[in-house]
Structures are given as structure tokens and as C-alpha cells.
Amino acid sequence: MKSEDGPSFAMSRQLIRQEGLLCGGSCGANVYCAVEAARHLPAGARVVAILPDSVRNYMTKYLSDDWMIENGFLNPSEEDELSLQWWHKLPVSVIAMKDPIIISSSMKCQTAMQIMNDRNVDQLPVVDTDGSISGAVTLHNMMRKVTKGQAAAQDPVSKVMYNQFQKVSVDTSLAVVSKMLDHDHFVIVTKGWQYYEDDGKPAPREMYIGTVTASHLLAHIIAGPHLYTNGVSDDKTVGSDVESLKSCDNES
Question: What is the pTM of this model?
């Protein structure tokens, strides 16, 4: 029997909270599998589960509600402060995002830099030949690589590509996205679609929808719930607020 990360971490947190056992992720996996196996045993059967690790290596991971939410293992609690906000259950798709801009990993750094200047963005998602997102080129990461002599203008962007980015689907709640933006500069939004190979076998794909930053989210919140009519927002108003926030950032 195999346990996925989600139920394993949830069981570890339950053991800590209810039993006072400072156990690690492997403990959660073992106990979760033991509980599942016990469901198929006769009444009175005895089950032994080994707890092989401690919580020491997980202090900044599954013990944190924020980390669990950011990685999709936990939904924001109904008691969470964010649940009191009008926007927290709305999907990220309500945010007014600019038209998608994507590049290939073979594009030269100089060309990518010119595109970022022309389009007034500081990150560009990089896609593979099948359309899936393999990373992102950011202004900060490119500057760091170039100034250290680790990349040059004519090098492909694959040398400066940033792989540690957050990616969510269009129906991810704004509460979850806001948690991510506490630590990340941007969140990439995608939508899944079904692609079929020539032999008729399904091959799931993802499509880049847009990028959400703290400015986007803040503009949406400041605009307020009055923008909504039957659950649809006035994108023009939100979009103009985003530009205003960016202008303030540039002036400061």
C-alpha cells in the first residue's frame, strides 16, 4: 500500500495534535496505511504501525498551515481570518490578467529582455514544445546571472530560467493565491485541457492563462465587491487599478 503526501501529512498533523507525538511525514504515511488496512480486518484484530521519523526535518513544512495551503494539501480553514473576507472564496480567474505572453527556452536573453521592456513585465513564462510550462524568466534572476558572469546576452534563456515558481489552476481560490504571494513575487495561472494522441490515448495538457502578482490581487480587493453583477467582475475597472498601483510602485 502506498500513501500520497497529502494524507500522510494530514495524519502526521493529527498525531501531533491529538496524541502529542512529534512525528514526521513517514510516520504519517505508515499510520495512514495502517488505518486503511485496518478497515478490511475483522473486529478485534490488532494492528502495529512503526513510527520511523521525527518532526525535526519538517519544522518549516507541513507543520505550517501556510505551507500546507500553498502546496495544495490544505484548504483555508473556515475559522481562518481570511474566511471573513468577501474575496477569499472567489477563483483566481476573476482577476483581470493581461494577454498571455510566453517564450521558448531557446530564445536569447537579449530578446527576452527587450520583450519585458516593451511589454512592461518583469517575468515571462517559458513553455516546452507541447505547451507545458517549464519555468519562468524573471528580471531579477536574469540580472543576477548576468552580473555574476554566468550568462550573456546571446545565451538562451534556459541558462537564466527560474524553476521555483508557483502554479495554480483557474479555479484556485484567491485565499490560496494570497498565501502564495506572501512569499512569491508572482503566481502562474493555467488551465488543463485534454489532448489525444494519434492512437486515441488521452494526454492531459495545460495552457498558460496569465500571471497574477500582488498588485493584481491588491487592486481587486481594493476595488471591492461592488464590482460584481451575478458573480462577474468589471475587468476594466480592476485592470485600471492594477496599472495605477504599478505607477505608484514606479514612482516610489
Answer: 0.62
Which residues neighbour 238 within 8 Å (Cβ) at sequence distance 6 or greater? Answer: 95, 96, 216, 219, 220, 223, 227
Q: At 191, is the secondary structure helix, strand, or coil?
A: strand
The DSSP bridge pattern shows strands 186-196 and 166-169 to be parallel
Tell me the C-alpha distance between 143 and 141, whole Å: 5
Residue type, 190: T
Strand 103-104 and strand 123-127: the pairing is parallel
State the cell numbers at 37.
488496512
Terminal-to-terminal C-alpha distance of the chain? 56
Q: What are phi and psi of 177, to 5 degrees?
A: -60, -40
Angle at CA 176, nearest 5°, toward 173 and 180? 135
Region 87-95: what's the mean pLDDT? Answer: 90
Query: Grid coordinates 514526521 are at which residue?
Result: 24
Q: Give yes or no for residue 109 having a pLDDT over 90.
A: yes
Amino acid code (one letter) for 197 = E
Question: Hey, how many other C-beta atoms are within 10 angstroms of the C-beta on 208?
Answer: 19
Decide the pairing of beta strands 133-138 and 166-169.
unpaired
Comparing 61-75, 77-91, 98-112, 215-229, which segment has the lowest mean pLDDT?
77-91
**Among 244, 183, 245, 189, CA closest to 212:** 189
Nearest to 15 by CA among 7, 26, 27: 27
Cell of 175: 485565499
